[in-house]
Amino acid sequence: MSLLGSLLAPLRRALFDTNDEPQPIDTLTAGQHVWCLAARDGTIYAGLSDGRIAVWRCSSEGTVLVGELRGHHGTVYALHASGPNFLVSSGADAVVRLWACTAHQASMLPTPTATSEACGHGPILALAGMGPCETIYSGGADGNVRRWTVSSDGGTLCITHTVDAQTKTVF
């Protein structure tokens, strides 16, 4: 054992050799591989391998599966809670979807608001947003980052800029 290792051993034992191992508070069962998660205001969203997004509501009484969102063909690889009222999803189908969340009605599921056309991205693996759903960024298997805006009719997501990330895949 090195000198540093012997000096740190008592600290390591004090921090890690306890009977108080972390335990999960709750386990939410989705029934599929979970690829991504997003959370907002007591709601958990999970992107699944079969194209669904599972939705759970959390409260002091526990966590309950309240439903699922359908709209993707293939794995949902990325979710982003955009602003206070929107969820953005993307996946293997190379489509970005925008879902409107009703903040004050806990029993309601988000509804589809806007959908992109499948772009040359290949699978879309990463999402980020700025502002209350004004600008959405996606990164995918083609090595590009794309900037999206919601069209004036509110039903279509439009690419406004593409940046070549100079890589093969953007995660």
Main sheet makeup: 4 strands, antiparallel
Average of pLDDT:
78
DSSP strand content = over 45%
Q: Number of helical runs? A: 1
**Strands, total number:** 12
Q: Can you give the helix content as a percent range?
A: under 10%
Any idea what the radius of gyration is?
A: 20 Å
- Identify the overall geometry: globular
- Strand order within the widest sheet? 1-2-3-4
The succession of helices and strands, N to C, reads: HEEEEEEEEEEEE
Instruction: Show unreliable segments.
Output: none
Query: What is the CA-CA span between the terminal residues?
Result: 39 Å
By helix and strand content, what is the structural category?
mainly beta
Describe the structure.
The structure is a single chain. The protein is mainly β and 171 residues long. The chain is globular and about 60 Å long. The protein contains 1 helix and 12 strands, in the order αββββββββββββ. The protein has a 4-stranded antiparallel sheet, with no helix packed on it. 8% of the residues lie in helices and 47% in strands.
